[in-house]
Amino acid sequence: MGLFTKDIATLDDLFVHTLQDIYYAENQITKALPKMIDKATDAQLRKGFETHLKETEGQIARLERVFEMHGSKAKAVTCPAIDGIIKEANELAGDIADKKVLDAALIAAAQAVEHYEITRYGTLIAWAKELGRADCASVLQETLDEEKATDDKLTKMAESKVNQKAEAATA
Ligand code: FE
Ligand code: FE
Ligand code: FE
Questions:
Q1: Closest Cα partner for 44 from 162, 131, 129?
Q2: Nearest bound ligand to CA 114?
Q3: Is the pLDDT assigned to residue 2 strictly greater than 60?
Q4: Choosing a second label site near 92 at 20 to 30 A (CA), which of 22, 36, 103, 131?
């Protein structure tokens, strides 16, 4: 978006802008996940991050497909929200000494990312349908389902063991 011009005139423009926003976010997530894999101690958590990294690569390909279906070029615009979520996670991780507490923090950070993605994909699907693009909506729905499943897996890991292990850690 320009500083002195308003580039977004229609709902369709807003749809494309938001596709560009989530395209940027997904690309940043593929850079952040390998660092989270390195920091995680719990084997299941590491495996979960590895699985989601592969899924994220597929999600980027799906977004490129949606851009193409829509007839626009795949392009990223900076998403300050995902940059902030990732920055906060990195800063917090740097302040945590205990590995088990760090695992709990990594799950919390990952869930903040998933929730951002869930809100963006939910909105994109609603706008695609409104714009008469059920075809784009159904591709985006595949990704939304993956993000929700990832969020659920993270909740289960946290509540079934990671939080307990963190709680047992003593300073
Ligand atoms: Fe994603
Ligand atoms: Fe954004
Ligand atoms: Fe995700």
A1: 162
A2: 3
A3: no
A4: 22
Instruction: Work out the average pLDDT over 8-20.
Output: 97
What does the alpha-carbon distance between residue 61 and residue 84 come to, in Å, rounded to a whole number? Answer: 24
Ligand nearest to the CA of 120: 2
Q: Identify the pLDDT of residue 28.
A: 98
> Which of these, 38, 152, 53, 28, lies nearest to 103 by C-alpha position?
38
**Is the pLDDT score of 23 beyond 70?**
yes
- Fold for 11-170, please state it: Ferritin (1.20.1260)
pLDDT in tens, 101-133: 999 999 999 999 999 999 999 999 999 999 999
Using the mean position of ligand 3's atoms as its centre, give its distance from the Cα of residue 33 in Å: 10
- Residue range 135-144: average pLDDT? 98
21 CA distance to ligand 2 centroid (A)? 5
CA of 147 to the centre of ligand 2 (A): 16
From ligand 1's centre to the CA of 144, what distance in Å? 8
Ligand nearest to the CA of 124: 2
What does the angle CA 71 – CA 136 – CA 120 come to, to the nearest 5 degrees? 105
Tell me, in angstroms, the distance from the centre of ligand 1 to residue 170's CA. 34
Output the CA torsion 83→84→90→95 (10° steps). 170
Domain ranges of the chain: 11-170
